[in-house]
Every structure is written in structure tokens, then in C-alpha cells.
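Summary for the steering committee. One of the milestones for this cycle was to obtain a three-dimensional model of the protein with iron/sulfur cluster bound, which we needed before selecting residues for the alanine scan. The sequence and ligand used are listed below.
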Amino acid sequence: MSMKRLALRPNAVAPLLCAVTDEPRWASLKWLTARGQAQELLHQRAAELARERFGQRVFLRAVVEVSNFCRENCAYCGMRRDNQDLARFRAHHDQLAELLIEHVPSRVTDINIQTGEDPVAVRELVLPLIRTLRRETSLGISVCLGTLSPGLYDQLQEAGASIYIMKFELAQSATYEEMEAPGELDERLEHIRLLAGKGWYVSSGFIAGLPGQTPAQLLANFGLATQLPLVGCSVSPFIPGESTPLADAPTGDIEQTLNCMAILRLMSPHWVIPAVSALNLAGPGSGYRRGLGTGANLVTINLTPSKIRGDYLLYKRDRFIMTEERILSSLQAQGLVPSTQSLAEHYRLQALEGQTTPMLQSEAEVAIR
Ligand code: SF4
């Protein structure tokens, strides 16, 4: 698709979008399936909203994947407990501490510590690592560790983490169960609310293009996201994972995923919306860059030590690793720059301004007019 900017006044965009969608609602089938000029306008307006809100700044964090043990069995994930083909690992505190204190690229402002759902790793590795990072660095600290006990959430927060990533993955209980997503949907949502109630900044996310997912099921994710106390949300295209029951299913459609990202931005201009690395797999060559063109404002460099990275099997062993070089050139291609403010500090200031709750749909509709 041509990335040439359409020469339209902002006020002209909403009527045009309405004209091509026949309705002013953001979460509609026609926006989801928009192609050609309608899609270009959708993405352009979403990118404009992000720039109005955040300027050219994009948050730059690094992720370390520290354990691939998982007690859950999600049908879409290679780290599911039934996968016997996977060598399981837990990284070592000292190895990670040295990496994160001495070798983090200078533009990185935040670290995301990620594991399978592995409370042992949380207690024995993640907690000490967060304490070390809090003592030795000023990096913002996010965690993505699955559903844990309230006591463990408190310990993580006391240690110095402030952002919790807990994706709800799918908005309907029946399909959530069918996909063997973690625990039960209601429980997952309760934990998101619990975390927000404890003062965590919570980001969530869902998967687009799961096998058998209907447009109505996909659209339901937007409604759910707006009802939750979130500061951000991601959309990940479904990638058929190696050694999973869905290994032979088709990859999620990149166009649909990009439209979902744009709709999220239109719905919540103030949210932090990441460009996920799976965009590279769903749209080889251009998916990631185009994701940045839908108003995404968070990118992630993978710092997991290369020795263990291959066994962090979210999708495939042949992973597309987002290095600093790849990230910076993608940003440059879109005229974007790394933020010097950390994500953690951004959320703290946003909370002080009372802007952490998601917009209601009616407000979102006003925002895109
Ligand atoms: S998606 Fe997360 S919880 Fe589910 S199997 Fe993979 S690592 Fe475990």
C-alpha cells in the first residue's frame, strides 16, 4: 500500500470514514475490514491522534525473557505445559543483572521482565532482579508474569515494579476456554482489576485472527478493553506456534491486525499501544513499520541472552528478534524518535493528571470527529 499521505483536511476525514463504513462507530465490521483508501484514512487518522497526543515520541523499552516454564496450556503458545519438545530454562540473576545494568542500550528507558506463568521464577529470580535494578538503575520496570497471588503482586510492587502486563487474549468465555487460555476469563479480568486497584499501571491485549474467530468475536475485544482499568492495550496477530495444537492453522491477517491497532488508537488516544514483534511474522518486510503507522507508540528491543532466546518459544524457534538497530531504523523510517521519558514516569504523571481511565465510547466517537 502506498504510504503517501492523503491530502485531506482532518475535518474531512470523519465524514469520509463514515461514508465508507456507513456508521460512526469505531468498532464496526467495516472499519475492521477496511482496505484501500478507507484503510489508509483509518491508519492516517490513528497516527495523527498519536502524534497530537505524544508528538513524534515513542517509548523504547527492552524485554528480557527469564523463564520458559509455564503451568498453563494455551493452545496458541509453544511454551504450553504439554509441549515436551521444549528445553525449559530459568536464567540466572547475576547474568541478567550484569546485562541490564551494564549493557542496556542508552536510549532504553524501561525494562519488561517476562516469564511463562512460573511463580518459582518470580520468587527466586524476578523479585531479586527487580530489587537489584531498582537499587542500581533508574529504569522503569514492567512485568509480564501471568496470574499470581495477591501477595506476590504486592512483593513485586514493593520491590520496584510499577507496570503489569496482563493480556485478556479473548473476550468470550467459551472461546477463551476452547483456546485453553490461562485459567478462566472472569478470573483473568478480576486480576486485571485487582492489580489496577493496588496501584499498578495495567496494560492488556488480545489476539487477532485466531482460527475460527468471527469478526463479532474480534470486535468484542474492543468493548471489553474499554471496560477495564487499563493504561494501554496491544493487538497481536495470531501466529501458529510450533509444537502446538494450532501449528497448521493460518497466520492472522496483517491487514485486520493493523486495522485493530488503528481502531484502538481512535478509541483511546491516550493509551500506550505497542507495535508487537509478531507484526514482522504476519507481515514480513513491512508489518512492523506499518504498525508504527497506525499510531503505535511503544517499541521493544529484545535483550534476552541469545543462548536461551531460542527456547522462549512463543511462536517459532526461528524468531524475528527486534534488535536496537532494527527498532531505530523502523522509527526513523516513520519520522519517529525514542522518548527520553520512561513509560513508568509517563504513567505516573498521567495518573497525577487523572487520565488513566479509558475513554467511554461516546468520548471516543467525539475524538474522531
Ligand atoms: S501464553 Fe503465557 S500463560 Fe499461555 S502457555 Fe504461553 S507462556 Fe504460558
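Key point for the committee: Residues 70, 72, 74, 77, 79-80, 116-117, 146, 182 surround iron/sulfur cluster (CB under 6 Å).
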